[in-house]
Amino acid sequence: MPEAPWFCQWLQQTHIGASVRESLWLFPAIETVHLLGMAALTVAISILDLRLMGWILRREPISSLGKRLLPWIWIAFAVQLVTGVVLFSSEAVKLYGNPAFRLKLLLIAIAGLQALIFHRTVYRDVESWDQSLVLPARAKIAGFISLLLWIGVVTAGRFIGFV
């Protein structure tokens, strides 16, 4: 296992890291919020991705669905980020070397990059899709890739405690 950098050692010794690690109820409470945030995030993203692929809600315009879901996606992602950092701070040294944790972070980064590219390119023309019976292939592919990435994030997250 690689030696954790000084930042992980410092973070783990902060008041927040030590409090979460030493508390009987704090870690499980924060982890519960983290899991609920992950559920909200993956459900919202999955609905949008499945619609992009043309598998559900075919009569629902993607532009209006996106306007309704994207704020929830951002809120759920913020919950994930905050709770994830707090949970990480309690076991930073241990998690640093965990391959499942590293894979989860890598997949989150790839999913974020993929979403950024999608929104800056393909999604810019979303209003024109509302009248079209056939979605652009790039939108379908983006939805499929996004769905696979987030399934990977959830799976890797689930394996963190077992590796």
In short:
The protein is mainly α and 163 residues long. It has one domain (6-162). Helices cover 77% and strands 0% of the residues.
Please, could you describe this protein's structure?
This protein is mainly α and 163 residues long. The protein has one domain. The chain is 77% helix and 0% strand. The chain has helices at 6-13, 15-22, 26-52, 62-90, 92-96, 99-120, 126-129, 137-159. Helix 3 (26-52) packs antiparallel against helix 8 and helix 6 (99-120) runs antiparallel to helix 8 (137-159). It is elongated and about 55 Å long. The model has no long low-confidence stretch (mean pLDDT 93).
Give average pLDDT, whole number.
Answer: 93
Number of E strands:
0
The dominant shape is elongated
Number of domains: 1
Helix count equals: 8
Strand fraction band?
under 5%
Helix/strand/pairing class, anyone?
Answer: mainly alpha
Q: Which value, in Å, is the CA radius of gyration?
A: 18 Å
What are the segments in which pLDDT stays under 50 over at least 5 consecutive residues? none
Secondary-structure element order, as H and E? HHHHHHHH
Estimate percent helicity: over 70%
The N- and C-terminal alpha carbons lie at a distance of: 12 Å
